[in-house]
Write a structure and sequence with these properties.
The chain is mostly helical. It is about 65% helix and about 0% strand. The chain has 16 helices and two strands. A two-stranded antiparallel ribbon has the order 1-2. The radius of gyration is 23 Å and the shape is globular.
Length: about 450
């Protein structure tokens, strides 16, 4: 069939000259349409969608995605030179693997019809059924459902990427791929459902987590601790950071993307988004200042690395509280979390735990401190959705709810990850060989080098 004949067939609707493969493709499309029918009638539209909110959330979604490359630079600059590429790829590959997993079943497990408040029904949005023309998510009623789905995807991507810093420089890449799939399905998705779904067990009990202190940072931090313990120490635990300039670049990208992370969790272009942006900025600045000043008081130099780590700790700690606390209180959250994490990093160095990039002392403890301080400083005056004021205002119930949730989530994430690591190791050994570790993962796992 010549090119002119193809054009003619398309122009006049003729099908008799269409190749067999085209017929197969049409049949496949018809099958998919039958298997996954539209939830709305053809030509209908969803009402109540705000153009301004949609535009902001499109921007916020892109901002959150850039956090994962930012994390790649942040972690990649900290490891030894022979492991830079492998460490960065462990973050980048999450954008590939978790995206596909989320589309197939992940979103359904996190936000599908609730099963006892613990997890979503995997069939609710299987293969994105109803995503394009479905009704908006109840807690984000002014943006399209498909936008809400892919905004939440970016959180699911960055969470397993955060864990990689704990077992950097010694994990087999194929094992890592299996582990992040298991972690996403069995740890992240149930926690997202319990915390953010209107019928989730933690949500219904009044647990506050504005943008992922529990779901993202505490789960990743506790999983990181389990990973560091399970994989044990590297052959050479000490190393010199390969590129501190990468760490600074990564911090900048993380800080920039975090505005989408926190302010985007308001799900609209509104005052709450502005408050979250403001508290995010001030908490991070306060934490960076506190880290280097605390170092200086103890006779250490005010380093670029310390400034960057402090800034990220502040971003972590304000995440659960961003839309619930005032700006002055966000400064306190940043300051307190930075001091606690700094002390935890020092304490970790006196143990045999080889958490390569101090993920638990920074992300885990930052999330824990932020979760607890949300129960201290949350205010109805900032956000009317707060069920009651925090401990600072003389009410104790919210703080107790936050503390119990913190304990429960920590145990679940740690124990669950330990089980998943054992399963992964049974299927594919987690650790590289001693020779591969000595050569560096860039060469031994990927055949590449800087």
């Amino acid at each position: 069939m010549g090119r002119s004949e193809v054009i003619g067939a398309r122009a006049h609707g003729g099908l008799r000259r269409v190749p067999i493969l085209s017929g197969i493709a049409l049949a496949a499309i018809a099958t998919l349409r039958f298997a996954f029918p539209s939830r709305l009638a053809p030509g209908s539209s969803v009402t109540g969608i705000s153009a301004a909110d949609t535009a902001w959330m499109l921007t916020a979604t892109a901002l959150v995605l850039i956090m994962t490359p930012g994390l790649a630079f942040f972690y990649g600059g900290m490891v030894s030179k022979k492991n830079v590429l492998s460490t960065m790829l462990q973050s980048f590959i999450c954008m590939v693997v978790i995206t596909l997993l989320w589309v197939v079943v992940g979103f359904s497990l996190a936000f599908g019809d609730s099963v006892n408040g613990l997890v979503g029904n995997p069939a609710t949005f299987f293969m994105m059924r109803g995503a394009i023309d479905g009704k908006p998510w109840p807690l984000a009623p002014t943006i399209p459902l498909v936008l809400f789905i892919f905004f939440q995807l970016k959180f699911a991507i960055v969470t397993p990427a955060l864990i990689t810093g704990a077992f950097a420089e010694r994990i087999r890449f194929t094992s890592y791929l299996l582990f992040i799939c298991l972690f996403s399905l069995f740890i992240y998705c149930p926690l997202a459902h319990a915390t953010w779904h209107p019928n989730g067990i933690l949500f219904k009990r009044g647990v506050l987590d504005f943008a992922g202190g529990t779901v993202v940072h505490m789960s990743a931090g506790c999983a990181a601790l389990a990973g560091a313990l399970y994989l044990k120490k590297r052959a050479q635990p000490s190393h010199h950071p390969a590129r501190i300039t990468y760490v600074m670049l990564g911090t900048g990208l993380l800080w920039f993307g975090w505005f989408g992370f926190n302010a985007g969790s308001a799900f609209g272009a509104n005052n709450l988004a502005a408050v979250a942006l403001a508290t995010t900025t001030t908490a991070s600045a306060a934490a960076a200042a506190a880290w280097v000043l605390f170092d200086a008081l103890r006779g250490r130099k005010m380093s670029a690395m310390g400034t960057c780590i402090g800034a990220v700790v502040g971003l972590v700690a304000i995440t659960p509280a961003a839309g619930y606390v005032s700006i002055p209180h966000s400064i306190l959250i940043g300051f307190i979390s930075s001091i606690v994490s700094n002390l935890m990093v020092e304490a970790r160095t006196r143990t045999s735990i080889d958490d390569t990039l101090d993920v638990f002392p920074c992300h885990g403890m930052g999330g824990i401190v932020g979760m607890l301080l949300t129960g201290v400083f949350a205010s109805k005056g900032v956000n009317g959705a707060v069920p009651e004021n925090g401990l600072f205002f003389g009410e104790s119930h919210l703080f107790m709810v936050q503390a119990l949730a913190m304990a429960g989530v920590s145990i679940f994430a740690f124990a669950g990850t330990w089980v998943l690591l054992r399963i992964t190791n049974w299927i594919v050994p987690l650790r590289v060989s001693a020779d591969d570790e000595a050569a560096g993962l860039d060469l031994s796992q990927h055949g590449e080098s800087l």
